[in-house]
Batch of 2 targets.
Target 1
Amino acid sequence: MHFEILVEDQSGKKALDILMPKIIGNQHTFRVIAYQGIGNLPKNLTSHTDANKRLLLDQLPKLLRGYGKTFANAPANAVVVVCDLDDKCLKTFRQQLFTILNACNPKPETLFCIAIEEGEAWLLGDIPAIKAAYPKAKAAVLNSYRNDSICGTWELLADAVCTGGSSVLKKKGWQAVGREKSVWAEKIAPQMTVDKNASPSFRYFREKVQELT
C-alpha cells in the first residue's frame, strides 16, 4: 500500500515522517506533503482555486479529484488528509469533507484524520515520550492535560517544555511558534510508542491506516 498524506504545516510533516514507519513498517510506502496552513473549504466545494494558494482546505477539492483520476487504476493507493480541528464542530467538519470526497468521480481511497484540538494533541498522547525528549519538562503541566481536550493544546505543551512558556513564545511571533512546533515534532516523535498513545484522534489515525495495510 502507498499513502499520500496531506498535512497543513511543516511540524505535521516532520512528525509523520518519523511516525509512519512505526505504524506501517517497511512493507508499505508513504509521502507526506506539507501545506502552508489549513485555510478554508471553498463555498463551492467543487470549484477550482488558485494553485499558488498553498492552503490545504482551499486546494482539497482539486487535490482529491486529481488523486481520484491518478489512482483509478491503482487500487493499492490511499490519500490521508490530516488537519487540526481547531474550534470547528467535528461532526459538521467531517460532513463537509465527505461532501468534497463524494463529489469526486472517481473517488480516491481517502481517510480524514482530524487532530483534536491541534496536532500537538498527538504528541501529548505520549507523556513518557515528551519526558524522554525534554527531561526538564514540567510534570505538573503535563499531568493537567486531558487527552484531546479543547484547552489551547500547543500552548500547554509550550508551558511544559519551553523556557518562559507559551507567553514568551507568542511574543516572538507566529513564525517562531511554527519553528518551535517543528522542533517538538523532531524531538518527541522518535521517542513515541505508537501503540500506546493515549490520544483518541491519534489512535483513530493509526488504526485506520493499519486497516488499509
Target 2
Amino acid sequence: MIDRPYLKKLLSPQEWLLRLVFWGGAIIVGVAAVLFALAAQLGYKYFHWMLSISPWLAFVVMPAGLALCVWLSIKFFPGSQGSGIPQTIAALQIEDEKRLSGLLSLRIAIGKMAVTFLALCCGASVGREGPTVQIGASIMYSLRRFTHFTQPNQMRGLIIVGGAAGVAAAFNTPLAGIAFAIEELSRSFEQRTNGLVLTGIIFAGLASNAILGNYTYFGTISTSLGSAGGWAAVLICSLIGGLAGGLFSRLLISAGAGWGGAFGQWMQSRPVAFAAGCGIVLALLGILSGHHTYGTGYEEVRDIVANGDVGYMGYGLLKFLATLVSYLSGIPGGIFAPSLAIGAGFGTSLSHLILFVPANTVIVLGMVAYFSGVTQAPLTTFIIVMEMTNNHELVLPLMATALIANGISRIVCHEPLYKAMAERFLHQKS
C-alpha cells in the first residue's frame, strides 16, 4: 500500500526546493571553509616569512595588526568579534529578522573571514574553526530568501546545518559536525529538520573532501594506552586538563562581564589601544616561546607529535596565555585549534612524568582533556580528536578523559563557555 500523503510530500516542488537550499548551501559552506583553511595557511606562512627577516618585527606588526583588526570589526563588521559560536547559538533563540541580521549575514561572514585572516597574518593565537561556524550559519541564513518557510524550526535548521557543516568541513570531521549540532547548537530539533541537518553535514564534508582529499587534521597518530596501568594517565590528564580548561573559560567569562576599576573603564573606552597593547604582550610571549605561540598551533602540534618536544619547553602555558590575550583583545578568531595546541602542550609536559604510557598517547589525552575542559562538550571533543588523529584504539580512553575533564571543569567554571557568552550577547542586543 502506497502512503499517499508521504508520496505527495516526497514529490512536492516546495519540499525539493527546501532540500536543494539545505544541500546546496551546505556545499557552499564546505567550499568556503576550505578556502578559509587555505587562506589561514597562507597567513601563517606570511607571518613567519616576516619573522625570518627579523623576529623583532613582531613588536611592530602585532600591535598595529591587532589594532587594525579591532578597528575594522567595530567600524565595518560589528558582530564579527570573537569566536562566532556564541553568536550562532544566540541566533537560534531570536525570531526577529532585524536582530538576527546583526548576528548572521553575508556582510558578517565576509568580515569574519577577512579580519580573522588578517589576525593570522599578524600572528595572533586564534583559530579559524569557530569563525567558520558563524560563516557557515550566515551563508545558510542568507539563503532563506530562496524558499518560503512554513515551520519555525526550518529557520533554525538552516542555522544549525550551517554551523555544523562549518565544523565538519573545517576539521574534515563529519561525525564531529553532527555531534556539534546536537551538543552545542541545539539539543532538540524535529526529526524532519534533523534529516536535512545530517545530509547537509554530509554534503559539506563531501565538498571539503573533493577539494583537499581525505586527509586527517593532525595526521594519523598510531598509539595506544598500553597496560591497564595506563588508565592512571587518563585520570591525571583529565584532572590537569579539566582544571586548566575550566580556568580558561572562567577567565573569559569574567572578562566578558567587564572588569571594574580604572583599567576596565579604559579597556572598554579605548578598545583599539587595548588591542595594540595585547599585540605587544603577544610578541613578547612569542619571543619567550621561540616563536611557537603564534597562529593556530596546527604546525606546532604536528611537529611535536612527529619529532618530539625539543624546543617546546613550557609551550602549553605560553600558548594558554597567548590564546587568552588574543581573545581578550577583541579581534575575530576562535579557540578550537589553539585549545587543541594548548592541550597537546600540557600533554607533552605530562609525558615526561607519565613514563609508563607512550608519549603520543599522553599528548592526545591532553588535547581531549583540555579541549573538553574549555568547551564542556565532551561528545564533540572526543569525536573531533578521534577523527583528527585517525586513532580508533583510544576510543574508550578518549571518551573517559572527555567526560572526567568535563566534570572537573564544571567545578571551576559552573556555566559552559559558549552558553554564557551567548546569553550575554542576547542581553546586550535586547
